[in-house]
Design brief:
Elements (H helix, E strand, L loop, with lengths): L1 H16 L6 H10 L10 H12 L6 E3 L5 E3 L4 E2 L19 H4 L5 H12 L8 H6 L16
Antiparallel strand pairs: 1-2, 2-3
Length: 148
């Protein structure tokens, strides 16, 4: 009986700790449907590159920063400025809980990312985007994706 209970608990822990990943083409479809292609001048490929370099398409990713803030979700949205994690001071410019940024439907994450991109600096507000996506050919991010 104890062995069965251990296996059940271990299986539960694996599910709880498992990253919530979204397929690249599935993400492209969601972003396309929510009209991000061309939003503030950024292509769908740029949005995909951003999601990859920030989270490796992990909707549930949380990264703790040295300043006490954390970055949340597929776009790694920072709790100091954009969302409220109730652990550190937050400006909460997106007026959203950081936990909502990690919801699988991506609506809160996308709404907040649009607000960030609309701010001065655009996608340059993400250091990883500047380092790995800006000014590079990115058409390969849509290879094999049927957006229809």
């Amino acid at each position: 009986m104890a062995k069965v209970l251990f296996v059940c608990v271990a299986s539960f822990l694996l599910v709880v700790n498992h990253a919530l990943l979204i397929d690249r083409c599935d993400l492209a479809k969601v972003l396309h449907r929510l009209e991000l292609d061309g939003f503030e001048g950024y292509s769908l490929s740029e949005w995909l590159c951003l999601a990859f370099v920030e989270s490796n398409f992990n909707i549930s990713k949380v990264h703790e920063n040295a300043d006490g803030s954390s970055d949340y979700g597929i776009f790694q949205i920072n709790s100091h400025y954009w969302c409220n994690d109730y652990r550190s001071h937050s400006e909460n410019f997106c007026h959203v809980d950081c936990q909502d940024i990690m919801h699988p439907n991506l609506l809160s994450a996308i709404t907040c990312a649009k607000k960030i991109v609309s701010a001065p600096g655009g996608m340059k507000n993400w250091v990883e985007w500047k380092l790995h996506c800006s000014g590079r050919p990115l058409n390969h991010w849509l290879t094999g994706c049927n957006l229809g």
